[in-house]
Amino acid sequence: MEQEVGEGMSPLADVWHQLTAPVLSDTYLYWALGAVVLDLLIGDPVFRLHPIRLLGDWLRVIENVLFEVGFNGYFGGILLFLLLSLTTGALVLSLGTLALWLHPYVFHGYVVIVLWATFALRDLLRHGRVVRQAIERGDLKAARTGVSMLVGRDTDRMDATACGRATIESVTENLVDGVLSPLLYALVFGPLGAVLYKVVSTMDSMVGYKSDRYLRFGWCGARVDDVLNFPVARLSYVLLVVTSAILPGFDARSALRVGWSDHRWLPGPNSGWPEATAAGALRRRLVGPIFKGGQLVNERWIGDPARPEGGTADDLVRTERLVCFATFLFLTFSTLVILFL
Fold first, then answer.
1. In this structure, what is the dihedral angle of CA atoms 96, 102, 108, 114, given to the nearest 10 degrees?
2. Cβ 314 vs Cβ 132: under 8 Å
3. Is the dihedral of CA 299, 302, 305, 311 positive or negative?
């Protein structure tokens, strides 16, 4: 029988158990659904004390200290990972202990907020809608500005459909690291698993660049992020194919074929799976010419060569439906696992 919060354990041991044990129980369902509802209601509000912004600030503090003492290579990147994980985990456990001391319901509310902080569906959709609405208005400047918040490529050469394509690519790629991965690691390793995943994801987004400063120092964060997203990216392939089979207006066979054949053309081991699958599901070609720093870095398209170029406002609407329903499918699957295993 599942132990109730606060029953028969010391507060710290109880919090450790609740936040780290696999939560294949109705408790996970309540926490996850609560986090999803909270995200859909208020999204990712921009305020200074948002947990992920504080995590980024703390990362910068540790990074600067490590660089000052000369640990700016591979070893320093590993130290950053360890120090950031240990301090963040200790803070989450400490606050959880305080919440449990106040009341078990306060603790449950605290866990919902923790999971909400790791989950970013509404914010992802909001960025996509900014670009879509700019395309609908015929405001190319606003579309370029909106897409510059999502991708690191040159935007001054992009027309409206190129902005739309880049947005589709970013939204589908971030379905993995902004939505599915936090939910999966919370399911398998408890809420603290979602927190530590977010630590790695934040490291990858802040120091995981192949620049002079971060080529070695950011290696650890980038590689651990690749490892953690490896199974989830392939799960997104399955979810997007099934979604395409259920929702009208999508092509499941094309999603299955293009996702399998074209994922390898995108850099990294993971991003190609959701992006290529979405190209097939939408019956569109994505990616195409990409410029960075004034240099052409890609000319390859993904998707069926006979299909039209993607990136219209309608394509963005359909992408939003695709991502939302894939998330719904994952939550449904989680519920079935919890109820019947």
1. -40
2. no
3. negative
Question: Would you give the DSSP letter of residue 285?
Answer: B
Contacts of 115 (CB under 8 A, 6+ apart): 31, 32, 34, 35, 182, 186, 191, 194
Q: What is the pLDDT of residues 57-74, one digit of tens each?
A: 999 999 999 999 999 999
Contact 279, 241 (CB under 8 A): no
Residues 239-262 have a mean pLDDT of 97
Say if CB 89 and CB 228 are below 8 A apart. Answer: no
Taking the C-alpha atoms of residue 31 and residue 111, their distance in angstroms, rounded to an integer, is 7
Higher per-residue confidence, 23 vs 337: 337
Short-list 93, 84, 273, 48, CA closest to 197: 84
Q: At what angle do helices 160-175 and 272-282 cross, to 10 degrees?
A: 120
Nearest C-alpha neighbor of 176 from the set 234, 105, 93: 234
Q: How large is the average pLDDT for residues 257-285?
A: 96
Closest CA to 313 of 282, 280, 271, 276: 282
Structure-derived torsion over alpha carbons of residues 226, 166, 194, 55, reported in degrees to the nearest 10 = 100
Q: Residue 311: which of 175, 159, 152 has the closest Cα?
A: 159
| Segment 169-188 mean pLDDT | 92
Alpha carbons 166 and 125: distance in angstroms, whole number: 14
